[in-house]
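User: Need the bound-state model for zinc ion:
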Amino acid sequence: MLVHGLSSHKGQNVITAIRLRLAQHLTVARLRVLQRVRRVKCSFVRIYLVNCSEAERAEVHTIDPRHVEKVGRLLQSKLGIKGRIPHVVVVCFGRRARLDLAPGAIADSLRSGRGWGAWVRQEGAAAALFNDIVPIRKIMIHEVTHALLHILANGFPYPRALEEGIAKMMEFYAFGERPRDDDKGNDHASAEHRNLMPAECVTVHSLLTIDPRRKKDGTDWDGNSLIVLTNRSFWLSCYLGELAKSRVALRSMLYTLRVNNIRGGEAVYEWLQQSTGLDASALERGFNSFCVTGSTDV
Ligand SMILES: [Zn+2]
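Assistant: Bound-state model below.
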């Protein structure tokens, strides 16, 4: 019963699934003790609204379950997994909610002030904050993507930039929107902006080998650097998408990396070169040109 929804996935680790469900139950129970919580179901996503106003609740109710379902199906196909989409818990905090009363790991990751949402593995739940800048539906889809990549791939560690790029891409794909150029981050692509970028965000190699704990200059990731990282990761996803038009192996990248246990940025970088037939310098030249002109030209 505890693994309901996950048991049908071939190769799924049952113990991991049980742990996840247990963490989810505990998280929700702890939330309910201290704050006003309402539950809303949206396709495979269980949304818990914490101290949300009527307007905030109404905003969540406008999210079309078909859009959420679309994301789940695409991620399943990218990962080569069939069957029912496992359910994902998202805790949505209203503007008046008290984050200090949220379960520990959620409060910690949101308090760090690094963004409007987080997939918090320890709690088995994603968190999303209502704010006046990014719509809650986009935050939810972004974090649900992180959650599903983790759950469906059974914790397989894809390089962070690949996950961020896909999560950002889903924010547009879910709602049938086309990203604007500045969403893709190419406003950061001029030589002047590149000089201001964290070193991790400049090349394909640096993006794939990011240390999520701290930047290469020894300082911690701050909010602005993380925004650049997410945008550049998205741009990397767009670049790989362009390359995939003529290089079919790239279309099943997530599946191939997982089933062949290709882990770590260096190994993935190597795999990219083999599967595209481009050596490191051609791959980097292509990415650089794509960031500046929008064309791969390799
Ligand atoms: Zn993210």
